[in-house]
Amino acid sequence: MKKLILHIPHASEKIPFYEGFVLPKERITKEVLKLTDWHTDDLFDAANCEKIVADFSRVFCDPERFPDDAQEPMAKVGMGVLYTKTDDDELMRVATPTLREKIMKQHYSKHHSKLKNAVKTQLQAHNKALILDCHSFPSTPIQKSQDKRLSRPDFNIGTDNFHTPQNLIDKSVAFFKERNLSLGVDYPFKGSIVPLEYYQKNKNVASIMLEVNRKLYLKEGTDEKSANYQKTKAIVQAYIDLVKTEL
Questions:
Q1: Which of 7, 51, 106, 205 could pair covalently with 198 via S-S, beta carbons 3.0-4.6 A apart?
Q2: Residue 177 in contact with residue 153, Cβ under 8 Å?
Q3: 26: buried, middle or exposed (CB in 10 Å: 19+, 13-18, 0-12)?
Q4: In the beta sheet, which residues pair with residue 206?
Q5: Is the separation of the CB atoms in 20 and 99 below 8 Å?
């Protein structure tokens, strides 16, 4: 069966261990509350899809970042694959080479192996794989956001010139327009994940990102669902059905 691959990297609040952290746990928990894509593992839960869900917080290790800090723009502000600073630019963790190797081997690499294997399975069976990269974002930019514009859309799709079919972009724009919902195309976030083994190499691996504005489903500043949660989930589910038509 052709399966859409749902990549959900930022839904977890778990810190597997606190080695290297220099701030109190209470302060780290506050950062987790701020940065987690709360409930995206449920918002994007759909039948006949393969879910690749990170089981650790992005504050501990961010699987969406490039493993090499030299390639990762956010590493310059302490938010590379291993976050060393808070959004307020407070020193949060000292990541020694030994600690980095440990986390990359035990967590980052294992997560990416699952994603790579899911893509490989679909390619072998159908000569095609499609990834939906599943996220949410705050209605107001965090301090270290690369795009500081305040007028943020309801939804955001992220695309890749090599891996995102134009037909899927066009369908996405029409989908949200029909529902009178504002959509940013590569705004405020751009790009969509593809395993490095296939990145810019295999056009049969397609990928698109969907970001949901947290004001639509969350009591912002908390991890609590708002009264509009189910309505927003229904929209996300309908979008997943749309993406599946590209399989």
A1: 205
A2: no
A3: exposed
A4: 130
A5: yes
Put residue 168 in one of left, alpha, beta given phi > 0 → left and psi -120 to 50 → alpha: alpha
Structure confidence by residue, pLDDT tens digits, 224-234: 999 999 999 99
CA distances from 107 to 49, 54, 126 (A): 23, 9, 29
Cα–Cα distance measured from residue 210 to residue 223, given in angstroms and rounded to the nearest whole number: 20
Contact 54/12 with Cβ under 8 angstroms? yes
- List of residues 6+ apart from 123 with CB closer than 8 A: 129, 202, 204, 205
Which residues, other chains included, contact 17 with Cβ-Cβ below 8 Å and sequence gap of 6+?
none
What is the DSSP pairing of strand 49-53 with strand 183-185? Answer: unpaired
Distances (CA, A) of 140 to 35, 136, 195, 213: 12, 12, 30, 9
Verify cis geometry, omega within 30 degrees of 0, for the bond prior to 16. Answer: no
Q: Give residue-wise pLDDT tens across range 133-154.
A: 999 999 999 999 988 888 999 9
CB environment 138-177: b (16+ within 10 A), e (fewer): beeeeebbeeeeeebbbbbbbbbeebbeeebeebbeebbe
Distance (Å, whole) CA 130 – CA 63: 18
